[in-house]
Design brief:
The complex is a heterodimer of chains A (103) and B (291).
Chain A lengths: L5 E7 L2 E7 L22 E8 L2 E7 L9 E7 L6 E8 L4 E7 L2
Chain B lengths: L1 H24 L22 H13 L5 H13 L30 E3 L4 E3 L1 H11 L5 H4 L12 H11 L4 E2 L7 H15 L9 H5 L5 E2 L2 E2 L15 E6 L4 E3 L1 H11 L10 H13 L4 E2 L2 E4 L1
Parallel strand pairs in B: 6-9
Antiparallel strand pairs in B: 1-2, 3-8, 4-5, 6-7
Classes of the chains: A mainly beta (103), B mainly alpha (291).
Chain lengths: 103, 291
C-alpha cells in the first residue's frame, strides 16, 4: 500500500497554486542491488488532477523523475473550499488518490 | 660561504612555508570573482554552488519531502506495534508521557527512569524497547536509511522534530549529569585521534573552512551553532533519503577515520548535548533539506 501524498492548494494571484509531494521509490530499472542483480523498474507513469470533475492536469511520467517527486502547478477558476483530487498510477498498477481543500 | 647561502635558502623556504600554511588556515576563502558569476543571494558572499543550492532550498522549504517522513512517523507513533502490541503514545520525551510539542528542542536531556543522557533517537529507541518490546540489536542491524529502506526510528525522529517547528532551542543544563554531558561532549568534539589525527574541531572549530565545495559551519561560534541543529533531521537530495543527527555523527566519525560509534550510544548523546546547548536560544525551523 502506497503512502499518502501531501497536497497544498492555495489561491495565489487569482489562480489556484497546487503543490504535491508524492511518496514513491521511482526506481529506474538501471540500478543494481548488493548482489549485482538489477532492481526492477518501479515508477509513476501517470499523474492527473481533477477539480469539480474536470481534469486540470494530466501528465505522463517516466524514469527521469526523482524519488519522492514534488510537483507544482496552477490553474484558474478554483474557489476557496472546493476540493481537488490527485491520482497517480505506477507501472506495477499501484494507484493512489488523495484529496485537498483549496484555501 | 656556501653554508651561509644554504642557511638563507632554508630561511626563505621556512618563510614561504609559513605563509602558505597561514594562507590555508587563517584566511577565510575570499569571494572568488571568476568562480561566482551567479547573482548572489542577500547576506554573506557565497560561492556559486552554495548560492544555487540556497535558491533551491528556498523553493523547496514549504514543500519539503521531509514531510512525507513526518507523516510516516506519525502513523508509526500512533499504531500498536511490536511484540507488546503497544503504540508510542505513552512515550515520555522529557515533558511527560505523550507530550510532543517542544520536546525535540529540549533534547538531549537526563532521564531518571533510564539513568542516562538521551538524545531524541536514543529516547525513541528506548521507548520502542520498553513500551513495544523491540530489541536494540534488531534496530541496530540497519540503523540508517538507504535507497530501499528507511528505518522506523528515522521517521519517528522526523515526526517528533516536526512537532517543535518554530520553537526556541532550550536544552536543559540543570541536572549535574546534563552539565557533565556538555563537558564530555566538548572533550569529544576537540579530541584528536585516528589515522589522520583529526577532531571534529579540525573542520568545525574555525570560520571559513570547507570540504570540497561545501562550506562548513564553525560549531564553536554562537552564530553558526544553529547549523548543527537546523536542517536535521534532513532529507538528502543525493539519493533521496532521510537522515537524522545520529547518522550525521556516525558519518563524521567515519570521515575522521574513527571507530564507528555504537548505535544510540552515550558518546553521541554527549556530543549532541554539547552542540545543542551551544545553539540554545535560537529558533528551530523544523526538519530540512540537505544536499
Amino acid at each position: 500500500m502506497a503512502d499518502p501524498m501531501r497536497i497544498r492548494a492555495v489561491i495565489k494571484d487569482g489562480a489556484v497554486n497546487v503543490k504535491i509531494l508524492m511518496s514513491h521509490a521511482m526506481e529506474t530499472g538501471q540500478r543494481k542491488d548488493e548482489a549485482g542483480k538489477p532492481i526492477p523498474a518501479h515508477y509513476i507513469q501517470h499523474v492527473s488532477a481533477t477539480w469539480q470533475g474536470k481534469v486540470v492536469l494530466s501528465a505522463n511520467w517516466g524514469t527521469a523523475i526523482s524519488r519522492n517527486p514534488f510537483l507544482e502547478f496552477s490553474f484558474k477558476g478554483g474557489q476557496k473550499g472546493e476540493k481537488i483530487q490527485v491520482t497517480w498510477t505506477d507501472n506495477k498498477g499501484d494507484k493512489r488518490t488523495d484529496e485537498a481543500t483549496i484555501n | 660561504m656556501a653554508s651561509i647561502k644554504l642557511r638563507a635558502v632554508v630561511a626563505l623556504c621556512g618563510l614561504a612555508l609559513a605563509c602558505a600554511a597561514q594562507a590555508q588556515q587563517k584566511e577565510p576563502p575570499a569571494p572568488r570573482k571568476a568562480a561566482a558569476p551567479v547573482k548572489k543571494a542577500a547576506g554573506a558572499p557565497k560561492d556559486a554552488v552554495t548560492a544555487e543550492f540556497e535558491k533551491f532550498r528556498e523553493v523547496m522549504e514549504d514543500a519539503s519531502p521531509a514531510e512525507l517522513f513526518e507523516a510516516k512517523g506519525e502513523e508509526l507513533w500512533k499504531t500498536r506495534r511490536g511484540p507488546k502490541n503497544a503504540s508510542l503514545e505513552q512515550c515520555d520525551l522529557g515533558l511527560g508521557p505523550g507530550v510532543l510539542k517542544g520536546a525535540y528542542v529540549r533534547l538531549p536531556r537526563y532521564f531518571a527512569d533510564a539513568g542516562q543522557m538521551m538524545d531524541v533517537e536514543r529516547r525513541i529507541v528506548h521507548c520502542m524497547v520498553t513500551l513495544q518490546g523491540f530489541k536494540v540489536e534488531d534496530l541496530a542491524k540497519q540503523p540508517f536509511s538507504n535507497e530501499s529502506r528507511t528505518p522506523d526510528p528515522v521517521s519517528l525522529v522526523t515526526y517528533v522534530a516536526g512537532q517543535s517547528r518554530g520553537m526556541k532551542i532550550a536544552i536543559p543544563q540543570k541536572h549535574a549529569k546534563e552539565r557533565e554531558a556538555y563537558n564530555v561532549g566538548r572533550e569529544i568534539f576537540n579530541f584528536r585521534a585516528g589515522a589522520w589525527d583529526f577532531s571534529c574541531a579540525s573542520c568545525h572549530g574555525e570560520d571559513g573552512k570547507r570540504i570540497r565545495t561545501q562550506e562548513l559551519p564553525n560549531l564553536t561560534s554562537k552564530k553558526d551553532a544553529i547549523r548543527a541543529f537546523q536542517g536535521w533531521p534532513g532529507y538528502r537530495m543525493t539519493g533521496g533519503v532521510m537522515h537524522t543527527l545520529q547518522w550525521r555523527m556516525n558519518d563524521c566519525f567515519r570521515q575522521q577515520r574513527f571507530p564507528e560509534p555504537g548505535y544510540v550510544s552515550e558518546t553521541i548523546a554527549d556530543l549532541l548535548t554539547y552542540m545543542g546547548v551551544n545553539a540554545n536560544g535560537q529558533v528551530y525551523k523544523g526538519p530540512g533539506i540537505k544536499r
